[in-house]
């Protein structure tokens, strides 16, 4: 039996910052520059695709939108669905599900969960943006392939320091048997 105090746990997590993200993973209120670079997006996408495939579903596709294209996306979204708006994050990742996979919900949700964990492990914050309800209205304008559909928009960037995760109160000690 090993007893760990909250202080010991905090010291352990200093060596494993990716694991620390699991304790306080929440959506960030404000996302700032910088946003993930292409190699980081590809790494997150591979992890997310693997999660979807392990659930027995088809792998999603991902399109990262930043810079001037992000302004275009926000404009198209505001025209198609005025109630759906982006928060001003420096990057939006479009999660695209196969159109033919009618039962894609479970595998897409698994992919998004892993995408969010991977972004957090790399030090980026996230917010879930609009979902399928805006997809059809903007897919043709964005040039989404006919065999894909927008499942979810994920906004990402560097979290505001005020949104930093904190460890939960564990009480006087946590006992591992």
What CATH first level would be assigned? Alpha Beta
- Alpha-carbon distance between the termini? 5 Å
CATH superfamily: NADH Oxidase
Pattern of helices and strands: EHHEHEHEHEHEE
Number of helices: 6
Low-confidence stretches: none
Please summarize the sheet with the most strands: 5 strands, antiparallel
Q: Tell me roughly what share of residues is in helical segments.
A: 40-55%
Structural Rg: 18 Å
Sum up the overall morphology in one term: globular
CATH architecture, by name, is 3-Layer(aba) Sandwich
Mean pLDDT level = 82
**Number of E strands:** 7
The secondary structure category is alpha+beta
CATH topology: NADH Oxidase
Number of domains: 1
Proportion of β residues? 15-25%
Structural features, described:
With 177 residues, the protein is of the alpha+beta class. The protein has a single domain (26-163), classed as NADH Oxidase (3-Layer(aba) Sandwich). The protein has six helices and seven strands; from the N terminus they run βααβαβαβαβαββ. It has helices at 6-14, 17-24, 38-54, 68-80, 105-121, 132-142, and strands at 2-4, 31-32, 61-66, 91-98, 125-128, 148-159, 174-176. Strands 2, 3, 4, 5 and 6 form a five-stranded antiparallel β-sheet that branches. Helix 3 packs antiparallel against helix 5 (105-121) and helix 4 packs across helix 6. The model has no long low-confidence stretch (mean pLDDT 82).
